[in-house]
Amino acid sequence: MIHPVKEKIILGIDPGTNVMGYGVLRVTGTKPEVLALGVIDMRKQGDTYLKLKHIYERVQGIISSYLPDEMAIEAPFFGKNVQSMLKLGRAQGVAIVAALMREIPITEYAPLKIKMAITGNGQASKEQVAAMLQRMLKIPDSEMSPLMDATDALAAAYCHYLQMGRPVSVKKYNGWGDFVQKNPDKISK
User: Fold this and answer.
1) Is 149 annotated in the active site?
2) Between residues 38 and 78, the one the model is more confident about
3) Is the torsion defined by CA of 178, 182, 187, 189 positive or negative?
4) Partners of residue 109 on adjacent β-strands
5) Known catalytic membership, residue 74
6) What local confidence, expressed as pLDDT, does residue 168 receive?
7) Smallest Cα–Cα separation from 155: which of 35, 11, 6, 7?
8) Looking at 14, 70, 108, 152, which residue is catalytic?
9) What strand order describes the sheet that includes 172-173?
């Protein structure tokens, strides 16, 4: 009996409040290929809440276009600016809800883990990550985004691809109820 080659679509998201990156990988058997690489640009929108609405609508549109089986999202990097962290967390949350509404399992990866998976160096620059992805996935120069948010998102998806079939100790959610159960401290009553 011939077994069909399994295919999986992975959506990668690099959260942002002004520019949010996305990358879509199709994995056929063990071969990954890039389906999409881009950004959701909100720099011209002034209203914070309209930016969140735009993120939700665009992520839903990307999901409708590519029908991902799973989503990999970069975890926020904890900096000193609390307001920036709050805004970034909101943007990440909206992207997560967009996926959860379509019952897409989500895995969150720390930036250090993503850089380590792609380059072998957790302190690699965004440019080094982009260059490595371009080589490994054979992405033509014409398809590379000038905004690193897109390649950061693709890096999250590729990191997830590298983790497939291996036990992972990252947070995975299989729906809104699962998220609530695993994160009771993040839910207000």
Assistant:
1) yes
2) 38
3) positive
4) 74
5) yes
6) 43
7) 11
8) 14
9) 31-41, 19-28, 7-14, 70-74, 106-109, 172-173
CA angle 20, 160, 172 (to 5 degrees): 85
Spatial separation of the C-alpha atoms in residues 11 and 25, rounded to whole Å:
7
Interval 164-176: pLDDT, tens: 865 444 556 677 7
| Catalytic choice (70, 74, 108, 152) | 74
Q: Is 67 left (phi over 0), alpha (psi -120 to 50) or beta?
A: left
For the CA atoms of the chain, what is the radius of gyration? 16
Element (H, E) at 148: helix 148-163
Please say whether the beta carbons of 187 and 180 come within 8 A.
yes
Q: CB-based contacts of 57: which residues, under 8 Å, 6+ apart?
A: none
Give the active site residue among 33, 108, 127, 149. 149
* Backbone phi and psi for residue 46, each to the nearest 5 degrees, phi listed first: -90, -40
Say what angle helices 111-119 and 126-137 make with each other, to 10 degrees: 50
41 an active-site residue? Answer: no
